[in-house]
């Protein structure tokens, strides 16, 4: 699983970079609800990424030990997304709903970009 940890480390750096960019946007622009929605959604997306990596490691360990294999936590990730949408709908003056949804998708976008960049580096 060292490849999984290396991927997670690269993706974590990208997520922190995006979060820092969003915080600067929230602090220095007039679009505070949009950037706060991006911060909130991306933070929960980062949590979902961490949860997915942890569950994948546990899944691999259980397969190697011959134990019963449980799910990869899809329900937990969906519940986190539902929580984000409920909070955004409850506080529309603080969080822009579309920004929260875009923030929730950030980890998947980062995973795809990381894959393409890393695969281009390998094939050179």
Provide structural commentary.
Pfam families: ATP-synt_I (PF03899). Keywords: Cell membrane, Membrane, Transmembrane, Transmembrane helix. InterPro entries: ATP_synth_I, ATP_synth_I_Bacilli. The chain has helices at residues 2-28, 32-65, 74-90, 97-104, 106-122. The chain is built from five helices and no strands. The mean pLDDT is 91. The protein has 124 residues and is mainly α.
Q: What's the end-to-end separation, in Å?
A: 24 Å
List unreliable stretches of 5+ residues: none
Radius of gyration: 17 Å
Mean pLDDT: 91
Helix content: over 70%
Number of domains: 1
Structural class: mainly alpha
> Overall 3D geometry?
flat
Number of helices: 5
The count of β-strands is 0
In terms of DSSP E residues, the strand content is under 5%
- Main sheet specs: none
How do the helices and strands follow one another from N- to C-terminus?
A: HHHHH
Main location: membrane
Protein name: ATP synthase subunit I
Pfam family, one: ATP-synt_I
Keywords: Cell membrane, Membrane, Transmembrane, Transmembrane helix
Quick structural summary:
This protein has helices spanning 2-28, 32-65, 74-90, 97-104, 106-122.
